[in-house]
């Protein structure tokens, strides 16, 4: 209970700082600008009876001032473009790891990563010692998420969370589940903002409501954000130290195992390979080394001594042959940050590319 209370107090301080700074870049502001330019006025949720009813329910559930909740939600806007962006790619769209990889492992991001690592080397070393998470993984995360703070988002977080809570597209295969998730995030943000006596309408972030250098959702700010620079407040927008420590803390909370590799290379014995069986658990580590090899996977070197469960990770390459690696429990931990094996591999390979560039 004391740990939870401490986390909430720290998060309130973080939001205070972020709101006062009024931060955000311009990359995610285009949907609103385009709609205004096209003569399509944004619709405020004050005009929606269903939104006002939900506002009252939130106020009662969270013990918040009903008038304040109505005002904040009422001044938030339904942005249809956000609902369109949240939809998965159209059916039949081929996944392509090589194309996805090229978006992140590229010269500008690698150069920015080298600079970030150099400027924060002592903090990264301290985080690695305190949490056991390698510097290159932390650097990879922040680089993939925001290019080290260059692209933290300029969408009003309240617009994002209300749109995805009240108007999440029914066409999504998990619409009800996702709608409930974003409503929970909206409630977290409102609770923290009223407790801190700040205006959540000033917060800027991604079109999904994520904020700061590490793109934390409101619930992640509550649970995992920490004051790693020791200045008495958490600032994931302006403090690289707080962002570094918070990312490492997030990984530890999800079971990061110090000194465990993230993945191993794999080949196949074509005469024995049973891809259907190997891919059945998806990326959840399930197989022992012996069980995986019995299905036709060929492992070498350190992989043969791996003590824990493993998973076969398939990375499709459009019309070309897929790429495969064997993921460990640490690979799975990275996917808890973003539930995608493509994302996890991009984080790993960006971090490694930056480490290689630094050594050169």
Alpha-carbon distance between the termini? 48 Å
The CATH topology annotation of the domain at 2-91 and 152-242 reads as Helicase, Ruva Protein, domain 3
CATH superfamily of the domain at 2-91 and 152-242: Bacterial muramidase
The helix fraction, in percent, is 40-55%
Quaternary structure type: single chain
CATH class of the domain at 2-91 and 152-242: Mainly Alpha
Which strand-content bin applies to the residues? 5-15%
The helix-and-strand class reads: mainly alpha
Count of beta strands: 9
Q: What is the gist of this entry?
A:
It is built from 17 helices and nine strands. By secondary structure, the protein is mostly helical.
Tell me the layout of helices and strands:
Elements: H1 2-21, H2 30-37, E1 43-44, H3 49-62, H4 66-74, E2 77-78, H5 80-85, H6 97-104, H7 107-119, H8 121-131, H9 135-146, E3 155-156, H10 157-166, H11 175-196, E4 204-205, H12 218-224, H13 240-253, E5 263-265, E6 267-268, H14 275-279, H15 289-294, E7 297-298, E8 311-317, E9 320-327, H16 329-335, H17 341-359
Antiparallel strand pairs: 1-2, 3-4, 5-9, 6-7, 8-9
Helix pairs in contact: 1-11, 1-12, 3-4, 6-17, 7-9, 7-17, 8-13, 9-13, 9-17, 10-11, 16-17
Describe it:
With 360 residues, the protein is mainly α. Among the domains are: 2-91 and 152-242, Helicase, Ruva Protein, domain 3 (Orthogonal Bundle), CATH 1.10.8; 263-327, no CATH class. The chain contains 17 helices and nine strands. The strands form four sheets. The chain has a three-stranded antiparallel sheet with strand order 5-9-8. Helix 7 (107-119) crosses helix 17 (341-359). The longest helix has 22 residues, at 175-196. It is globular, with a radius of gyration of 22 Å. Mean pLDDT is 89; it is low at 1-39.
